[in-house]
Amino acid sequence: MAKPRILVAQAIFPETVERLAQHFEVQANQDDVRWSPAELARQLADKDGALTTGAQRIDAALLAACPRLRVVANMAVGYNNFDVAAMTAAGVQGTNTPDVLTDTTADFGFALLMAAARRITEGERYLRAGQWKDWRYDLLAGSEVHGSTLGIIGMGRIGQGIARRAAHGFGMEVLYHNRTRLPPALEAECKARHVGKDVLLANADHVVLVLPYTPDNHHTIGAQELARMKPTATLVNIARGGIVDEAALAAALREGRLAAAGLDVFEGEPAVHPDLLTLPNVVLTPHIASATVATRRAMANLAADNLIAFFDGRGPLTPVNQ
Ligand code: DGY
């Protein structure tokens, strides 16, 4: 029987491609070139399955051009690049990579919070530019992290990981906002209190965004929400860029209505809003919250495992549509 044909749509570990090749006929884009939607459709037209990252949009137009396609394994926990309803209607299974990146991503959320609140990258730029002349009482003085109040918007696995770090490691009071409230035992373990979004924004010294991106929460943090936050506060986004109105955020940072921000994700990434690039009080990183070698390997392996299990008839391990 002919092996299923799989497209690896963006570069991944060569050993993952080799592993897939033991099960499938594999075509892999191992170049550092992101395919246009038209090129992706052309490459996928004769494939039975695909391994994608968050950079490939799987929607009705693409599915119409790919009649053989049966499964798409995303190497990411977020799958806002999938039109899940269109995939379900077309009989295409989607999968993601939850759990394997939870702690690594929570670590990074905390790192961005520390870097922004304590002005770490600003200090490094200052030192490298030869501006450091002497110790000064107010040199790059930032905001306190330990013992402060953290607001977490989106309390899935990664949000819970950040809450544990904050409460247990840094003695922070943790407020969270989520569509559904956590069971009491989990709330107690995370030492986190469920509050409305406005209460969270008004009371938090630092706010971390960890919610999945959907059309409903586009620009969930805009001018109004930023105006509710303390002017001394820090905003961290490790979720998806579209959740924050970047122009409104840049204005708040520029005008001193918000002290600092740490952003790992951007609405038009890899492009970054030009206003953000001019500001000293925002830490900018290129979507690397899950980027440790071990975690990226685990994500690639889980995406491959999903394809193997699907075509073995065992069913996907971590489906996003049923
Ligand atoms: C995810 O897994 O969703 C991360 O953003 C990595 O792309």
From TrEMBL:
<comment type="similarity">
    <text>Belongs to the D-isomer specific 2-hydroxyacid dehydrogenase family.</text>
</comment>
<keyword id="KW-0520">NAD</keyword>
<dbReference type="GO" id="GO:0051287">
    <property type="term" value="F:NAD binding"/>
</dbReference>
<dbReference type="InterPro" id="IPR029752">
    <property type="entry name" value="D-isomer_DH_CS1"/>
</dbReference>
<keyword id="KW-0560">Oxidoreductase</keyword>
<dbReference type="GO" id="GO:0005829">
    <property type="term" value="C:cytosol"/>
</dbReference>
<dbReference type="GO" id="GO:0016618">
    <property type="term" value="F:hydroxypyruvate reductase [NAD(P)H] activity"/>
</dbReference>
<dbReference type="InterPro" id="IPR036291">
    <property type="entry name" value="NAD(P)-bd_dom_sf"/>
</dbReference>
<dbReference type="InterPro" id="IPR006139">
    <property type="entry name" value="D-isomer_2_OHA_DH_cat_dom"/>
</dbReference>
<dbReference type="InterPro" id="IPR050223">
    <property type="entry name" value="D-isomer_2-hydroxyacid_DH"/>
</dbReference>
<protein>
    <submittedName>
        <fullName>Gluconate 2-dehydrogenase</fullName>
    </submittedName>
</protein>
<dbReference type="InterPro" id="IPR006140">
    <property type="entry name" value="D-isomer_DH_NAD-bd"/>
</dbReference>
<dbReference type="GO" id="GO:0030267">
    <property type="term" value="F:glyoxylate reductase (NADPH) activity"/>
</dbReference>
<feature type="domain" description="D-isomer specific 2-hydroxyacid dehydrogenase NAD-binding">
    <location>
        <begin position="110"/>
        <end position="289"/>
    </location>
</feature>
<dbReference type="Pfam" id="PF02826">
    <property type="entry name" value="2-Hacid_dh_C"/>
</dbReference>
<feature type="domain" description="D-isomer specific 2-hydroxyacid dehydrogenase catalytic">
    <location>
        <begin position="6"/>
        <end position="321"/>
    </location>
</feature>
<dbReference type="Pfam" id="PF00389">
    <property type="entry name" value="2-Hacid_dh"/>
</dbReference>
